[in-house]
Amino acid sequence: MATGLDVELIQAASAGNSEKVRALVEEGAEVNARHASGITAVLAAALGGGIEIVQFLAARGADLNLRYRNKATLLILAATQGQAGVTHFLLQKGVDPNLQAEAGSTALLAAAIGGHVDTVEALLSHGADANLADNEGMTPLIGAAKAGHLEVVCALLAHGASMEGALVSAAGVHPPVACLLLERGADPNARNERGLPLLVSAAADNDFDWLSNLLRYHADVNAAGPDGTTALIAASLHGHVKVAQELLAQGADINARGEKGIGALTAAIIRGHQDVARAVDWTGSRRERHDRYGGKSFNGSGNVQSRAGAAAAGGWRLRESGRFPGHRRDAGGCAAGRCAGDRGAAGTRGRAVGETGWRNEPRRGR
User: With contact defined as beta carbons under 8 Å apart, do 112 and 120 qualify?
Assistant: First the structure.
């Protein structure tokens, strides 16, 4: 148990008073004494970013491998606070960057969740495992993506972090991070914790921009959840006409059946969403006539035309324009965040969006 002198030392370290710390140590204060709360002088200094005090106490024999509450290491606590200088010093002293706390957390995970990019880079450069997860399966990349820390995501990707689970964490919440992950090859058909494809979730939430980006990166337009609900059915149930039109334009199956055998048209009618019902019904009739006449299209009066004739007359062409009366797809691609040195991924066209990111548009073979 800490004596009165030891408590003074801990308090001086916490306040960043290096002169008093030195004086108290000279008077005989124990550098590794613990307060009733479990804190020591070096821990107090580390949490406050007192690198000079940490270095002094380490030279006087302070334990740099101590554990605090929940078995958190000194390194984990410094990383949590984003104390890059202290983190770097501890790593130089040989502290293991991959030691885990009681719940499996690591210094890298803590720094990633906090968005402390300098601390993250220090840890990665000293051998921290970019894929080491806690007891609940959260990796540093998942933590950074969930919190929307783009720079940290970039740093982790540069060190080979697995993208598994990261896109779901950022989906619909942090567009720059989510778009960057898509650009880097994350699976657009990933499913959330309820087993729903991200596209279905976006449709249900009426998140048109996110849904469009998923489609742009080739998400399966007909992917279904555990009960058979597709994105189109979800949009129809909730009355999201713009989303439904976009899905139909991208080839969504109007005959797919979800829970209790209910399809998109029936769902829209039951819920009283007339605009959606009209869009689905209109698409069905167009596709039926398109198939019946061997790939020919129709003008506004319903007369059969060749594709060339329809194009010349400004008519609707099912697979090439995918438009509905009154439907306009917003221009622009995925506003992805840009990592240092990025010039756009292979197969994309990149152009700067302000000073914060690229707008990347994957080439779609139409």
Answer: yes
Q: Which residues contact 281 (CB under 8 A, 6 or more apart)?
A: 265
Task: Work out the angle between the directed axes of helices 264-271 and 231-238 (0-180°, nearest 10).
Answer: 10
Q: Which DSSP symbol is given to 101?
A: -
**CA atoms of 250 and 203, how far apart (whole Å):** 13
Q: Is the pTM of this model over 0.85?
A: no
**Phi, psi (rounded to 5 degrees) for 189:** -100, 15
What the block records as the tokens of 229 is 């609900």
* Calpha distance 322→319 (Å, rounded): 6
Residue that wins the pLDDT comparison between 330 and 18: 18
What is the rounded CA–CA span in Å between residue 286 and residue 283? Answer: 5
- At 196 the three-state DSSP class reads coil
Residue at token pair 């606070």: 81
For residue 189 the two structure tokens come to: 């058909």
